[in-house]
Predict the structure.
Amino acid sequence: MAGRSMDFDPIAQARQNWAEAGWNDVADGMVAVTSVMRAHQILLARVENALRPYDLSFSRFELLRLLAFSRQGALPITKASDRLQVHVTSVTHAIRRLEEAKLVRRVPHPTDGRTTLVEITDLGISTVEDATATLNRQVFGDVGMSRTEIDGLVSAIESLRHHAGDF
């Protein structure tokens, strides 16, 4: 149950159950996957809580941050999709929500009539700057792990991502 501390680790208990069921050879993998999924839930809840005052999901925040980092404040929709590593449909949905909030706008590409750019607005810039400061303060500045633990986690996940063909 979220928000309630237990007197035992349910994932450790699941490992024991896996072993007792005769699946000891895959118990480490189950524990790894389950642990990452639980960590995702914990971190996502923290991020969502920090972004709630801005009416942003993490995916919409990521798109705004990407646009704010870009040289022109605008990118072709397909390039944004590639850089965020999500399907163009997901980016289009995020753009629609951000347009409704006046944080981005679609504009024609200046030299390629077949391409549409997504461009961050002034309101989008101020919103993403404030949201970034909040995330830095409430989430990124203290994820609940030491620097050494963070380095190990990032390295392990990088290995998993590379093995999966993510890069």
Observations:
- The first strand starts at residue 74 and ends at 76.
- Helices lie at 10-20, 24-51, 58-69, 77-84, 88-100, 122-140, 147-163.
